Amino acid sequence: MDSxxxxxxxxxYDLVIKLTEDSLDMNHLFYRISAFLALxxxxxxxxxxxxxxxxxxxxxxxxxxxxxxxxxLLHNFDEAYEEIKRYEYMPYVSQQVEEVLRDLxxxxxxEEKKSVESHELSNDEIKKRLKSKDQSVVxxxxxxxxxxxxxxxxxxxxSVMIDxxxxxxxxxxxxxxVQKGVNKDLxxxxxxxNIIVNPSKLEPPFIGKEFxxxxxxxxxxxxxxxxxxxxxxxxSSYIIYTYPEKLEIPYPILIEALKExxxxxxxxxxxxxxxxxxxxKNINLEEVKDLIQRIKDCVEDF
Length: 302
Fold this sequence. Notes:
69% helix; 17 helices; two-stranded antiparallel sheet; 2 strands; 3% strand
């Protein structure tokens, strides 16, 4: 279970989902629900509750809270009220359960009100949110822009790309403009250097022959589904963090670096240590170590 918590802390949500696929352990199932939610897969999270409700009732307070939160997230407010009634009809468990039940209807009403307000957000309100330095405010605002004319918000997005403290958020702002095909030269703070980019001329990440070829090479070398999934997740975070920088690293060096990080995070002991693997493959050990540190620094700051 500690390894699942570590993976959640590192945002390796896909791997958490894979590792808990067949689990009937209550704690594992709650981690599975949390991972789905982190990936924006509310329906899948709700399905875990519907399928394993009896097991999850082992922690009834947590189940009730997360169940109603998911239904509100999905805007299923009527169903949320129905589920509260269902929990109310259950036999008495504890005073804590009773207190949570008493507060849940108010929570649903507040979330229902917020939902209405969010759909009525003006362009000016979205612009205001894009100017925030709180990533939990800026990211949803960027998502709202996807369904509107991006040019209306270009000045604010440009500010995010240059001034927002976290590199990952600056990269997400740039990726939005790449997706929208904005044909304009714009400033972008790439790690510690200011550069000029034209989103319409940038290739989106995770597509094309080069990326697919590397993933195939990685899969062929590792031959362990858990390590492979973890390594791909780490690589994905690294690519987003360093975007639009090209991934021009020799495959053998990149593969060994990703493997070593995954082994460490998953607490896997291998028959051959890193120096031995590098020696057997005639790879420069120091280059691999340097890359490992660079990737770790990016992922931990993500």
